[in-house]
Amino acid sequence: MSENNNHNVISDEQLIGYIDGVLGPQEHARIAQLLEHDDLLRQRYDVFEAGSRPFKEAFDLILDQAPHARLQAMLDDTDVVVPLRRRGFGVPQMAMAASLLLAVFAGGLVAGNEFELPSWVPKSQAPVKAKGWRQTVAEYQSLYTKETLAGLWGGEQQQVAGLKRVSGRIGVEFSLAKVALAKASFKGARILTFKGKPLVQLAYLQGEQPLAFCVLKTGQADHGARLERRVNQNIVHWTKDGFSYMLIGAVPKDDLDQLAKVLEQRFS
Amino acid sequence: MTEAQLKAVKDGLPTLLERLWRYGLVLSKDSTAAEDLVQATCVRALERSTQFEMGTSLDRWLFTILNSIWKNDLRSQKVRQGQGFADPETELIFDGVQEIETNILATQVLTDVQALPEAQRETVFLVYVEGWSYKQAAEVLEVPVGTIMSRLATARTKLGQLQENRRQY
Q1: Which residues contact A218 (CB under 8 A, 6 or more apart)?
Q2: Test the B interface: residue of A75, A209, A233 with most B CBs within 10 Å
Q3: What is the pTM of this model?
Q4: ipTM strictly over 0.90?
């Protein structure tokens, strides 16, 4: 439990801005710090983070469905109407309305969100930051249930073949023995793509909960196991020899850490 | 000056038709209505090309027009045609568009977003799919920036709940 009540000071909008990576560096660091110590704020953060999804990836698939030829033909058929005269503030009354608006903006006569951004929002109005690989994996993984994945898992022969395939693609060796865990059952391996690079996904089931062990060649500096939380799931991740590993699942962090320790030893 | 603006709009439109159609689909949930929206947008954009400021973003200008046509003209028509209320769990997510069978997860994301009320749906789409800033999305939708942020908060809460419900069954 936290001693201070700082969670009251951080608004929903600020938390959203934090998650979307649009706050200025100072504000971002401040909230990151608060999140480490304030359980209530953390809970509010988790609620919003749970709503993260691979939105762009899913909706980009829709573009392929567009009736391109029909739309183009329709555009070609549209008669171009050349405007006979300019529209705009040519009329005196309109001109007055325009200058009144200008006065309102410049003089700050109207307060509140209507015309003024909160002071902590950076003026540059940055677009939502690009997602890292662990966030992307977490968004997809959050959608999995045991049932969702049942069709994708295979018997031992398929598992062995799958492991061989992913080993070849990423340059890390996987075998049934190397991926076997006492407290979660291995279900299958496959290759996904992240920003053009192969990402290995090993699927496990712990009771009713799907877990995933993912590997990506990131070229980042080595570091030992770190714990984080994204989209309502716990993650343990580490980097060794330019390969980054992450174990993720909606299971208690101690359980996850136990499994991660075993894998970290085997993949190092 | 008039000619340059018209040319900019004419040259840019063909490259943006699919994105405009996709946005029309998100708003109307109907591929025929989406095509109508794109057509109406093209007509209005060409008619009003003198209002387009050279050097500004053509895509956002067009999206603003499409949004306005939907809100002010076509949406009420569609309601009158009897689209009415539908149970988001059972209605087709996009009437007339082939379901993406091969990607279960994408279908889930699309279903969840399309089940959101229009205000949240359009906001999630413009910020997280089109990738615009809160301010840019606010301009397209003609609402205050604060409204964008609170809609995102509400949408995220709802989307999180939907997944939590799935896990429990």
Answers
A1: A133, A239, A242, A243, A244
A2: A75
A3: 0.75
A4: no
